[in-house]
Design brief:
Layout lengths: L4 H15 L8 H8 L3 H13 L3 E4 L5 E4 L8 H9 L6 H4 L11 H19 L2 H18 L1
Helix pairs in contact: 1-3, 1-4, 1-7, 4-6
């Protein structure tokens, strides 16, 4: 199982915006440079996040992007669902009619359990928690220098 690049980069984008929360908007090109991600690719990701109400944009010379909500109010399941969709490891988890064996299949029950666990974990982690982890890692990196 592997999350898409879109989701991995989207989470990194949200952390960068969260690190800047409460300050002036930040340019996508600055995030792209710091995170070593294509600005064009980030612009596609930010459209989805803005459409979901997680990111806001400001036009003009002093424009850029901000989080639309406090990082404490944003869970990772929101971000991942916007960028990845709901968790379905196999087709029959989303649509039991995709498989004639779905009602008698113990494996399907396992995949549902795994998806539920992933959803629950991502739902319990806030962007604020991830931002704090990122700050801790930056401090450790500075101490090593």
């Amino acid at each position: 199982m592997k999350l898409s690049t879109r989701t991995r980069y989207g989470v990194r984008l949200m952390v960068e915006l969260g690190l800047n929360y409460g300050k002036k908007p930040i340019f996508l090109k600055d995030i792209a440079r710091r995170e070593n991600i294509s600005e064009k690719y980030l612009s596609i990701i930010v459209i989805r996040l803005r459409g979901a109400g997680l990111v806001s944009s400001v036009r003009g010379v002093n424009g850029g992007y901000n989080l639309a909500k406090d990082p404490v109010e944003i869970t990772l399941i929101e971000v991942v669902t916007v960028l990845e969709g709901n968790c379905h490891l196999v087709h029959c988890v989303k649509n039991s009619s995709a498989c004639s064996r779905a009602t008698q299949c113990a494996s399907r029950d396992l995949w549902i359990l795994v998806c539920d666990s992933i959803t629950e974990t991502l739902g319990s982690v806030t962007l604020d928690w991830l931002i704090k982890k990122q700050r801790q890692k930056a401090i450790v990196k500075l101490k090593k220098k």
